[in-house]
């Protein structure tokens, strides 16, 4: 990703936070992100947006997708009574859960030199990332914890961030974890919106760079 694009995405992310999130502590959280690698980190090491600035762009993509899902699918169903959910979701909650769902990836991906064979069978180097988790506390739950260091989350925001990976976070977990996940999807509409937005953004909107 070009440096100019990374810079524009950073400006866009900060503007979205300031426009939609008025909660006490958001300014301190933005200051923390400013001094971290959030705006330059990749979204993954080998999958979607595995390039500089990928994490910030992915967060924006999830927000924009979540807003569309809510405004065009969830909200009309809530308002006409066909949804099992009856309460409308504040835009602030959608912004918090989507823009900040992957804070767990801060200081997680570290640039490294990788090697592969070219078409002639010669070893060539290419830029990549290696994983070094300074605080291995999980994925969604780690994001919740990091956000809570700076501002207070509502229960539905915590559930949405915690379970945004859906069944992809279930592979090595037991029955109690699966029960908790299904219970969260039944309890809170925001859980379903953020999970769907994350999946759509990462699978339909974001390429993997092949070096």
Sketch the major β-sheet: 2 strands, antiparallel
Average pLDDT, rounded to a whole number, is 94
Biggest β-sheet: strands ordered side by side in the sheet: 1-2
- Total number of helical segments? 8
Helices and strands, in order, run as HHHHEEHHHH
**Overall SS class:** mainly alpha
Q: What's the end-to-end separation, in Å?
A: 13 Å
Outline:
globular
The portion of residues forming beta strands comes to 5-15%
Helical residue percent band: 40-55%
Low-confidence stretches: none
Quantity of strands, as a count: 2
Whole-angstrom Rg: 18 Å
What secondary-structure arrangement, pairings included, does this model have?
Blueprint: H1 3-20, H2 26-34, H3 54-80, H4 91-99, E1 109-117, E2 123-131, H5 140-148, H6 155-162, H7 175-187, H8 189-205
Antiparallel strand pairs: 1-2
Helix pairs in contact: 1-3, 1-4, 3-4, 3-8, 4-6, 4-8, 6-8, 7-8
Short summary:
By secondary structure, this protein is mainly alpha-helical. Helix content is 52%, strand content 9%.
Can you describe this structure?
- It is a single chain.
- The protein is mainly alpha-helical.
- The chain has eight helices and two strands; from the N terminus they run H-H-H-H-E-E-H-H-H-H.
- It has a two-stranded antiparallel sheet with strand order 1-2.
- The chain is globular and about 65 Å long.
- The mean pLDDT is 94.
């Amino acid at each position: 990703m070009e440096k100019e694009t990374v810079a524009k995405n950073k400006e866009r992310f900060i503007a979205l936070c300031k426009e939609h999130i008025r909660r006490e502590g958001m300014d301190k959280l933005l200051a923390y992100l400013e001094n971290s690698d959030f705006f330059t980190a990749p979204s993954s090491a080998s999958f979607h947006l595995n390039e500089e600035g990928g994490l910030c762009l992915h967060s924006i993509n999830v927000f924009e997708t979540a807003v569309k899902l809510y405004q065009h699918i969830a909200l009309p169903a809530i308002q006409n009574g066909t949804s099992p959910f009856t309460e409308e979701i504040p835009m602030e909650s959608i912004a918090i859960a989507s823009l900040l769902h992957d804070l767990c990836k801060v200081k997680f991906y570290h640039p490294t030199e990788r090697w592969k064979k070219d078409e002639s069978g010669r070893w060539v180097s290419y830029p990549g990332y290696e994983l070094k988790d300074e605080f291995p506390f999980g994925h969604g739950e780690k994001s919740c914890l990091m956000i809570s260091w700076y501002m207070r989350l509502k229960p539905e925001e915590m559930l949405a961030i915690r379970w945004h990976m859906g069944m992809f976070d279930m592979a090595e977990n037991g029955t109690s974890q699966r029960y908790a996940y299904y219970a969260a999807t039944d309890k809170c509409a925001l859980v379903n919106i953020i999970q769907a937005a994350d999946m759509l953004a990462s699978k339909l909107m974001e390429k993997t760079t092949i070096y």
